[in-house]
């Protein structure tokens, strides 16, 4: 019973690699030993054993479980799934042919990408009927003045298709939302319901422990890999009569980062800043020191004790007097650059948590350039999904000036923290 599964193990490892897991030859060989040892009689036991081989973090465990449940299935379930896929493929092809006929203006196909056409085909029938009714209403005028009304009709269709694409992304992300934990990991933080926040916090704690473990593993006590320490090697050789068979190495000096956090705590940003600070606290293994500043219309430095208990963070922000005001990023950056003694210098990494929306964009851009002149590096964590950046002028402006990382989900926040720790 094990042989057929061994033949499929390489294909399973390839799927895991496509999902971003470390599933190389070594892991595949270990998994093969697991199958040979345990067989497939106890499916859950095999799943647990193989999970330890292929996944190391909570995120990877969730991805592995999804892939395992979708790949190692009984034969009758696989056949039923294939039939359903074939039926779904036929249905999608039919929808695609209908979409090709409907997305025409004056006998010519509208200029939409294959992804946009697929989004149109996935629209509910009533939504497509409304668009077709709109097209019939203006068909005559579009024939008389194709340039003016053609662009107008195209823009209406494009807006409806974009809304459908956003709905598809938020609704499922390819079926990931079927698992509650995976749904929380990959769903927009701003869409969390109040009852989901405790679960999200527990996931954050699990992921941050994993990040801390990774950081500790990358800083072992031994200094091998650095330069040879001749003096210590010779001294040690005296213990063996002058034989230099035990080499001593100099430990590599690791420069620890100094972080300065500038957190937007205006009304729409408090929840994101709260989650982001929880993740950034996991960088304590690579950070020599860190200071946190909160801003909306004005800026204030956060009390370090208030950040120890993140459950009280929101209350602290409300008491600080800056909650609920307009966002003035330019003023905050100018205040940060003007601090005496200086807060920003060449050895500091400035991390900005904000959605880029500010009352004076030109002032904010000029202040950001000044901050970049003072500090060694600026990283911007943006809670707005990356597929919307092209429609927001302030995001485009700031992204052209500094490194901007999308952090609209917990999974993206964890990835951003790993990138910061490794750089």
Q: What is the secondary structure topology, with strand pairs?
A:
Elements: H1 2-18, H2 25-38, H3 43-54, H4 58-71, H5 75-102, E1 104-105, E2 108-109, H6 114-121, H7 125-144, H8 146-171, H9 180-186, H10 197-217, H11 230-237, E3 257-264, H12 270-280, E4 287-295, E5 299-301, H13 313-319, H14 329-337, E6 348-353, H15 361-374, E7 377-382, H16 393-399, E8 403-406, H17 410-422
Helix pairs in contact: 1-2, 2-3, 3-4, 5-6, 6-8, 7-8, 10-17, 12-17, 14-15
Describe the structure in your own words:
The chain has 423 residues and is α/β, with parallel strands linked by helices. It folds into 4 domains: 2-72, no CATH class; 76-171, no CATH class; 200-219 and 255-422, Rossmann fold (3-Layer(aba) Sandwich), CATH 3.40.50.410; 222-253, no CATH class. The protein is built from 17 helices and 8 strands. The protein has helices at residues 2-18, 25-38, 43-54, 58-71, 75-102, 114-121, 125-144, 146-171, 180-186, 197-217, 230-237, 270-280, 313-319, 329-337, 361-374, 393-399, 410-422, and strands at residues 104-105, 108-109, 257-264, 287-295, 299-301, 348-353, 377-382, 403-406. The strands form 2 sheets. Strands 5-4-3-6-7-8 form a 6-stranded mixed β-sheet. A hairpin with a 3-residue loop joins β4 and β5 (299-301). α3 packs across α4 and α6 (114-121) packs across α8 (146-171). It is globular and about 100 Å long. Residues 172-180 have low confidence and may be disordered.
